[in-house]
């Protein structure tokens, strides 16, 4: 039986473990943390990732535990719609919409299906040529090593020494879960002068709110809730009301980094990189976790041929990183005239083409798993 060792129990690593096990691999997942903590609050699982999860019979479960995004689009801070789209339009175009869920829920779904998950086991080194993973407690030999050890991946640095590290986008991000207020909350994203706020209803009467602003990297953190109210307190509802109801201790803040220079390959020797270890990106497309899921499903379908994995994933993920970075730059505009021109252009384009927002995502959301990935009985396998 072929043996795989997965470094990191994030969404990408866990998805890879499940997919490999279904193909007969013996898999061990090594996670340095003592317990699984899904930092990040909410998560958008878009049509491309749902199709990927269908191949391991998890797509329908994710849909069941999620709130499917309905009418959405872009607004101004005063509430004027610039571009709108609907769940029906997205489903008709891509065969699925976007499932909004708790990140912890997806992590739990995946972890429950992994047979050998070892928490509190930090990796101290990897021999890529021989497939040896070293830990403080001993060594693991593997035919395949999957490195899902995140944006600051030690494995990536060891495999590609001298490659440029992730760079700061100039943007810091906040995320928080708050109780559902009275009335209907729509999925929206609002762009202001260098500021962004997004709102998505979740299951179980929760709302996921995220926000970004320009800030120096490593800026000291204070009362983040108070800072958000200063920035967004006069924006359209329900943004101020949601922030008022948030608890100070629940607000998460992270500076946003991305890999400006793509790796020369997504593997070396017996080691494959996936997710943030391979291609960290800004959150503007909502594709960080989705691309990690795609990576995992394709890796399981091509392993142990890692050259085929790189050929299938490197160019695609580089394009997604670049597209997300481009949107991030657009959100950073602060000059009033430039903001006005941006809003006018968006509104005009939306009137000229009602499906503009969807069409701009065709290459990303229209992706389908390779036929060889369909091991389950979900939608993708039945299609």
From TrEMBL:
Keyword check for Oxidoreductase: yes
Magnesium recorded as keyword: no
Annotated ranges, domain FAD-binding: 4-159, 265-300
This protein's UniProt keywords: Monooxygenase, Oxidoreductase
Protein name: 2-polyprenyl-6-methoxyphenol hydroxylase-like FAD-dependent oxidoreductase
Organism: Nonomuraea africana
């Amino acid at each position: 039986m072929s043996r795989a060792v997965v470094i990191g129990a994030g969404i990408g690593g866990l998805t890879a473990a499940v997919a490999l096990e279904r193909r007969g691999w013996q898999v061990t997942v090594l996670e340095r943390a003592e317990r699984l903590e899904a930092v990040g609050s909410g998560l958008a699982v878009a049509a491309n990732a749902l199709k990927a999860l269908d191949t391991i019979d998890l797509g329908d479960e994710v849909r069941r535990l999620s709130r499917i995004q309905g009418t959405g689009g872009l607004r101004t801070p005063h509430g004027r719609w610039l571009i709108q789209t609907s769940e029906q339009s997205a489903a008709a175009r891509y065969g699925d919409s976007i499932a909004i869920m708790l990140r912890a829920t997806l992590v739990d779904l995946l972890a429950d299906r992994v047979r050998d998950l070892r928490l509190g086991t930090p990796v101290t080194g990897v021999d890529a040529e021989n497939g040896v993973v070293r830990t403080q407690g001993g060594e693991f030999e593997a035919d395949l090593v999957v490195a899902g050890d995140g944006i600051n991946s030690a494995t990536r640095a060891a495999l590609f020494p001298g490659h440029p590290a992730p760079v700061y986008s100039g943007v810091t991000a906040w995320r928080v879960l708050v109780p559902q207020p009275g009335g209907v909350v729509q999925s929206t994203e609002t762009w202001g002068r260098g500021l962004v706020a997004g709102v998505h209803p979740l299951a179980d009467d929760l709302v996921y709110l995220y926000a970004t602003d320009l800030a120096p990297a490593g800026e000291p953190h204070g009362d983040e809730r108070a800072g958000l109210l200063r920035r967004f307190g006069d924006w359209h509802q329900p943004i101020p009301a949601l922030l008022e109801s948030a608890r100070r201790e629940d607000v998460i803040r992270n500076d946003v980094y991305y890999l400006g220079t793509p790796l020369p390959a997504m593997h070396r020797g017996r080691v494959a990189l996936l997710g943030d270890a391979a291609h960290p990106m800004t959150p503007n497309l909502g594709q960080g976790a989705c691309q990690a899921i795609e990576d995992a499903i394709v890796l399981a379908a091509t392993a142990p041929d890692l050259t085929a994995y790189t050929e299938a994933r490197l160019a695609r993920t580089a394009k997604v990183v670049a597209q997300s970075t481009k949107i991030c730059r657009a959100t950073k505009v602060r000059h009033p005239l430039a903001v006005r021109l941006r809003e006018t252009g968006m509104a005009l384009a939306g009137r000229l083409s009602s499906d503009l927002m969807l069409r701009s995502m065709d290459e990303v959301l229209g992706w389908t798993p390779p036929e060889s990935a369909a091991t389950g009985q979900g939608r993708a396998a039945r299609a």
